[in-house]
Amino acid sequence: QSALTQPASVSGSPGQSITISCTGSNSDVGGHEFVSWYRQHPNKAPQLMIFEVTRRPSGISNRFSGSKSGNTASLTISGLQAEDEADYYCCSFASGGSSLYVFGTGTKVTVL
Amino acid sequence: EVQLVESGGGLIHPGGSLRLSCAASGFSFQNYDMHWVRQRPGEGLEWVSGIGVGGRTYYPASVKGRFTISRENARDSLALQMNNLGGGDTAIYYCARGPPFALDQWGQGRLVTVSS
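^ inputs. structure came back:
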């Protein structure tokens, strides 16, 4: 199972919106409604930001939203803030291969 | 408060074995799937094992046959036995709670270094 494809980096100014894409296949992103997104600050554990494509865990700001079209999922961060600067990973449940879950390659978000 | 605290890890020679543990608290451990995820230095996240509430286990091809995940519900404890370790296994290993199809709570991670 290959890693899902994300852009290496995305940047934006405070207050702007950015979108991170996550492209997979029919066996993962396109085949299930089980895409999740994680934020990881340097030297910290990942934090769940979005699950089941669009749902936010309790306590996560509504500035974070998720969507999916075909084999590509997206995470949008609106009203960009300094604290949003981090690495972001998508993850999908996978079927047909040996892995239960497959992560994305990761995207470094920089707040200018 | 949900807490996952990993222990074990450290430096191990190539071909050696190591056991990681994860102590869970603040939730009903027996009712959740649990997973291990690793992150090689400077790289992304990689799922390396999972165990369901009924004890069924799952592994990717990269570790199948070398890693064994287990749980002891009476002790709210998760473990990962890693055998025949190689340089590619050098990573921070995270214990994570998995309500179906997402990982909603993570431990702080434990570094495993495979080197001669």
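The radius of gyration of chain B is 13 Å. The CA atoms of residues 51 and 57 of chain B lie 4 Å apart.
thumbs up if we can close this ticket
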